[in-house]
Sequence to fold (434 residues):
Amino acid sequence: MIETVVSLQPAFILHHRNFRESSLIAEILTRDFGRFTVIAKGVRTPKSKLGPFIRPFVPVLLSIAGKSELKTLTHIEPWQSAPKLHDLALYSGFYINELVTYFLHPFDPHPEVFLLYQNALSELSNTLELEPVLRVFELNLLTQVGYGLQFDVDNLQHPVSPGKKYCFNAESGPVESEQGDFAGSTFLALEARSFPDRTTLTEAKKIMRSAINFHLNGKPLKSREVISKILKHSHS
Amino acid sequence: MIRQGLLGQLISDLCALPGVGPKSAQRMAFYLLQRDRGGAIRLAETLLSASKKIAYCEQCRTLTEDKLCRLCADKSRDSSMVCVVESPADVWAVEQAATFKGVYFVLHGHLSPLDGIGPEEIGLNLLENRLAAGDVGEIILATNSTVEGEATAHLIAEMAKKYQVKATRIAHGVPMGGELEYIDSGTLSHAFNGRRQV
Ligand SMILES: [Zn+2]
Fold:
């Protein structure tokens, strides 16, 4: 791999873990260079000027260098004000961080995913209706990485009818069936990225979950399980 | 240098310690073997019995060789005040800095959804049992001010609310790195006294 030097690149920290005595290894999403891993040396010391900015959900500008796959973080500074994520919105943020980590291959540039991600965080911080934000993010993310789904026609290329019942198949899309779990109107809502009511949202969540699981090939989304346990503890 | 045999093994085992590189590991090994065999044997024996006998305190999950740690067993401490921290090192930091006379609860980490670390992994079942038992009057959240530390504090505050227990958060903003162990005693003491109800 050739020497990379990136200077003041807009980015987000997706995840970080402690490394050795005073360093961090961080998964980052950059605007122009995609997702990859950096090592931030000596940042877990009281004197470090970079340490305080290595936090998830904070828009930053960062500089990196390095010849190997593991790049070295050389500079980081705040870029824009951070969206204020609390409670469920914060947990949702962790979830979309994990999605991005799974669905973007290292060093595969996706400026449009960066934009989707940035918008999703800002919307999560500004609404009480988190689910539509998550569904739209999932749909657009899958589309951008080449797993786009068409929801307005069924597996036989017939237009989806709002009043009919359908099953969902992650490869072929809606499949008309009397015993189907989902209303045609839910697929049309997904296609339009607009969810009129709770029933539609509940069905949309199941459909997206099965689409995502299909593409993860059996890899579990850790955040999904943890979040459901957190919710069990926090609400009686 | 090629490391072989027992000496090589000893040096590479010492390298596993935080902050110890090959150079200092070599120095330690030579010192113990050349100058202080007695000390080496004592160290080995202490290490062995400490690793066998030290476990989590049944009440607060800090490291102890007894069922209850020294702090939990101390009858003069107020067991209705529970200070929640991320690590045993934080217990020491608070003990040194603040005039806190309650007891602790050690999480050994924080919520980290991407690592699969949820409420059970940080002992919140045990903490919830204590809240449910009704003998906790105030819970002081002294987790780090990192995003994960804040998420953890928030969840524990929600749990406290469920059992009508007062929860307060220590007033450290976002200092360097946000980790409790980096805060000097004066600042920590200040943060402790300036805690706010959440
Ligand atoms: Zn104890």
Remarks:
- Chain A is about 40% helix and 25% strand.
